[in-house]
Specification:
By secondary structure, the chain is of the alpha/beta class. Helices cover 43% and strands 12% of the residues. It contains 8 helices and 6 strands; from the N terminus they run E-H-E-H-H-H-E-E-H-E-H-E-H-H. Strands 1-2-5-6 form a 4-stranded parallel beta sheet, sandwiched between helices. A two-stranded antiparallel sheet has the order 3-4.
Length: 196
């Protein structure tokens, strides 16, 4: 199961190792095709030395109050994550500062931002997707910023995958954090149907 970029990674894992995947659940995933890979790859390669230096540094990164961090999670996603739920993401990616009491720093590795090496050309993605034979659930969130670009993509994937279903659920890209009850029944129905 994956959300957003996590779907991109897990989808490609399922393509490469279908024998290891019993079920595939995609929550508002970013599975991209029809995209020129060269510019984003070049931009990342230009930035990688900086990311590498930051990741290997023994110095403590900049620290912030929890209120500042909540806004740092909330704003870049156009408010997709409700402020009251930002802590669900923060609790796994911050640590208390040793130098500034009451402040925290991000522990995430910036090198993980590189996802362009997972992007396959359209025809390659269509062909390799045929490897996935396990039951698959694709859930798009209606108000997601990714919805308009990817809805037609999912129509294509559903026609390729023999055991796939597609649903649209109201909510932003982070609806699973903001309003999990909106799709909990859908997930439970899928699990009851396919998982013993």
């Amino acid at each position: 199961m994956g959300h957003s970029m996590g779907c991109l990674i897990s989808y490609h894992y399922a393509i490469l190792y279908p024998q290891n995947v019993d079920l595939f659940l995609n929550l508002d995933g970013v599975i991209m095709w029809n995209m020129d890979r060269v510019p984003p790859m070049a931009a990342f390669m230009d930035s990688f030395p900086k990311f590498q230096e930051f990741a290997l540094s023994t110095s403590e990164p900049p620290s912030y109050t929890l209120e500042q961090m909540r806004l740092m999670i909330h704003k870049p996603h156009n408010g997709s994550i409700d402020l009251k739920h930002a802590d669900l993401l923060l609790e796994r990616s911050i640590a208390a500062s040793k130098h500034d009491p009451g402040k925290y720093y991000f522990t995430r590795d910036p090198r993980l931002k590189f996802n362009d090496h997972f992007i396959l050309a359209t025809e390659d993605l269509r062909e390799k997707s045929k490897n996935i034979v396990c039951p698959s659930l694709f859930v798009k969130f209606a108000q997601s910023s990714y919805s308009a670009a990817n809805t037609s993509l999912y129509d294509g994937l559903i026609s390729i995958l023999p055991n796939a279903e597609f649903h649209i659920v109201e909510g932003t890209h982070h609806a699973h954090l903001n309003n999990p009850e909106k799709f909990a029944a859908l997930l439970q129905q899928f699990m009851d149907k396919h998982y013993e």
